[in-house]
C-alpha cells in the first residue's frame, strides 16, 4: 500500500488518476516544505464500490479463511497511514507511521462516533454519510460510494492533522489491488527479515535474510501481523522497510529518470489511486531529490501502552507527546560543538556515529545512539542492518580515537575503514549487544529518557537508502 503513493510523487503528470477535494481549505505548510499523507485502504473494492474480481482476491490472498466470497472480506480500514515530510532545502525526508490501532478523537467525522481507532475514522464516516444520503432519497450505488469516500478522506486527513499537529498539503490513497499492481509492475522488490516467518492469514512464508518478493509476496510481507512479537507495530516497520526498498529499487534501476517507465507505472495506477486535485506534481518533483536518492528516515509514532475500550484492544496514546515528538523531529536543536566521549575519553576528536541494529532487538540502535549522544557524540544514521553474528565498530579518517573508545565499550576491536567519511564511526550491533557499560571510563552510558521517540514498543527509526532488515 505505501509504495503506491510514493511511486507517483515523481511522475510528471496526474492525468488519469482519481482526484479528490477532501483537503478543502485546511492549513498548508508555510515554510515551503511539503507534507504528504499516504492512505492505504484494506478494501477489496474498487473506486466505484464494485467488488474486485475473485481471481484478483485469490492472488492477493485477501479473502476470508473459508474462501473468497463474492465481495471479499474486509471493510474500509486505513491500515496504512504515513505522513511524509519533504523539506524545501532538498534535505532528508522524514516519514511518520501512525499505528492503525491508536485510539484517538476524530475530527470532521460524520455521525455519532467521534472516538475510536484511527484506522476506523474512514469507514465509520463513510457508512454514516451513505446512510444519511439514502435517507434523503439517493439510491445510486456509485454516487453513494463516491460521496462516502470523499467524506471519509476528509475525516481521516483532519484527524491525522490534529493528532500530529502539522498541516497536510497533499495525499495519495490506494487500495490492495493498487498496491499489488504496482509492486508487480516494478518487478517485485528486495526485502530483509531478521527471522523466518510463516503466517497462513496473510500468506507470508519467508526465510530469514534478504530475498526478492513478487507482487503477491510483497503484499503478504506488508500485511502480516500474526506471529510477530509486536503485532501491528512490527507490521508498521514492514511497511516502512518496503517503502525504503521501493525507493532504492526505483533509484538503482534508473526508473526515476526514465519518463517512459514512469508513465507505465502511472497507467497501471489509474484505476486504483486517488490524489488531491490541487497537487502540483511538477513543482513537487523539484523537491523530491531526497526521495529519489533514498534519503528518507522513517519513524513510528509513540504509544503509551495497550488497553481495552469498548471490548476492543487499542493502543493508548498521548496526543501532546505525539505532537511534541513530531515537532522535535522536524525541528531538531542545533548540535553544539562536542568532543567525543565527554571531552577527553575519546581523544578529543569530533565524531558522528552511525548505529545500526543487526541483532534483531527492537529499538536497541536508538537506545545506544541516544546514550552516545549524551556523551557528546553527534548522532548519524540510526536504523537496521542485515543480521550480524557479532558487534562491529569501524571508523573513518580522523576518527580513530573515537572509534577505539566506542569499541572498548562493546568489548570489540575497532577497524579502520577508509570508505567512511572523515570523523565518522559506524557501529553495527550483533545479537549479544546491549547499551554498554562504561568500560574504561569509570561510568555507564545514561539511559534514554522516557520521552525518546524511538524507544518503546514502536521501535526505532528505519533508514532509507538501502534494504533495511526488520522483524
TrEMBL record:
Residues 351-431 form the LytR/CpsA/Psr regulator C-terminal domain. Residues 328-347 are annotated as: Disordered. InterPro entries: LytR/CpsA/Psr_C (IPR027381), LytR/CpsA/Psr_CW_biosynth (IPR050922), LytR_CpsA_psr (IPR004474). It holds the Pfam family LytR_cpsA_psr. Residues 77-251 form the Cell envelope-related transcriptional attenuator domain. PANTHER family: POLYISOPRENYL-TEICHOIC ACID--PEPTIDOGLYCAN TEICHOIC ACID TRANSFERASE TAGU. Belongs to the LytR/CpsA/Psr (LCP) family. This is LytR family transcriptional regulator.
Amino acid at each position: 500500500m505505501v509504495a503506491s503513493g510514493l511511486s507517483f510523487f515523481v511522475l510528471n503528470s496526474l492525468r488519469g488518476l482519481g482526484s479528490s477535494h477532501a483537503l478543502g481549505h485546511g492549513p498548508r505548510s508555510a515554510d515551503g516544505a511539503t507534507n504528504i499523507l499516504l492512505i492505504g485502504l484494506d478494501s477489496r473494492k474498487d473506486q466505484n464500490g464494485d467488488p474486485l474480481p475473485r481471481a484478483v482476491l485469490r492472488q492477493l490472498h485477501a479473502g476470508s479463511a473459508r474462501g473468497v466470497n463474492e465481495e471479499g472480506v474486509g471493510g474500509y480500514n486505513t491500515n496504512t497511514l504515513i505522513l511524509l515530510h519533504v523539506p524545501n532545502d532538498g534535505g532528508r525526508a522524514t516519514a511518520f507511521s501512525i499505528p492503525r490501532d491508536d485510539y484517538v478523537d476524530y475530527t470532521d467525522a460524520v455521525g455519532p462516533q467521534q472516538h475510536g481507532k484511527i484506522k476506523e475514522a474512514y469507514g465509520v464516516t463513510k457508512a454514516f454519510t451513505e446512510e444519511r444520503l439514502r435517507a434523503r432519497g439517493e439510491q445510486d450505488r456509485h454516487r453513494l460510494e463516491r460521496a462516502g469516500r470523499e467524506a471519509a478522506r476528509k475525516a481521516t486527513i483532519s484527524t491525522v492533522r490534529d493528532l500530529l499537529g502539522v498541516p497536510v498539503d497533499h495525499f495519495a490513497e490506494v487500495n490492495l489491488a493498487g498496491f499489488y499492481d504496482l509492486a508487480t509492475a516494478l518487478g517485485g522488490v528486495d526485502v530483509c527479515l531478521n527471522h523466518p516467518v510463516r503466517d497462513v492469514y496473510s500468506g507470508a512464508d519467508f526465510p530469514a535474510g534478504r530475498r526478492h518478493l513478487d507482487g503477491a509476496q510483497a503484499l503478504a510481507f506488508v500485511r502480516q501481523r500474526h506471529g510477530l512479537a509486536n503485532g501491528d507495530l512490527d507490521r508498521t516497520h514492514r511497511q516502512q522497510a518496503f517503502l525504503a526498498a521501493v525507493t532504492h529499487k526505483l533509484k538503482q534501476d534508473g526508473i526515476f529518470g526514465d519518463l517512459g517507465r514512469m508513465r507505465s507505472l502511472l497507467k497501471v495506477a489509474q484505476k486504483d489511486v486517488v490524489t488531491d486535485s490541487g497537487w502540483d506534481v511538477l513543482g513537487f518533483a523539484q523537491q523530491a531529490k531526497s526521495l529519489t536518492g533514498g534519503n528518507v528516515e522513517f519513524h513510528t509514532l509513540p504509544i503509551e501502552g495497550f488497553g481495552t475500550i469498548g471490548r476492543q484492544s487499542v493502543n493508548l496514546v498521548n496526543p501532546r507527546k505525539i505532537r511534541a515528538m513530531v515537532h522535535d523531529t522536524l525541528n531538531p536543536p542545533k548540535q553544539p560543538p562536542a568532543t567525543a566521549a565527554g571531552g577527553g575519553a575519546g581523544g578529543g576528536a569530533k565524531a558522528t556515529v552511525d548505529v545500526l541494529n543487526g541483532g534483531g532487538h527492537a529499538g536497541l540502535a536508538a537506545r545506544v545512539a541516544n546514550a552516545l549522544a549524551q556523551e557528546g557524540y553527534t548522532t548519524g544514521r540510526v536504523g537496521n542492518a542485515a543480521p550480524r553474528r557479532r558487534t562491529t565498530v569501524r571508523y573513518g579518517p580522523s576518527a580513530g580515537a573515537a572509534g577505539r573508545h566506542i569499541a572498548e565499550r562493546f568489548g570489540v576491536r575497532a577497524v579502520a575503514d577508509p570508505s567512511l567519511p572523515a570523523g565518522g564511526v559506524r557501529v553495527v550491533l550483533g545479537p549479544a549487544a546491549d547499551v554498554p557499560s562504561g568500560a574504561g571510563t569509570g561510568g555507564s552510558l545514561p539511559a534514554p529518557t522516557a520521552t525518546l521517540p524511538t524507544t518503546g514498543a514502536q521501535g526505532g527509526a528505519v533508514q532509507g537508502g538501502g534494504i533495511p532488515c526488520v522483524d
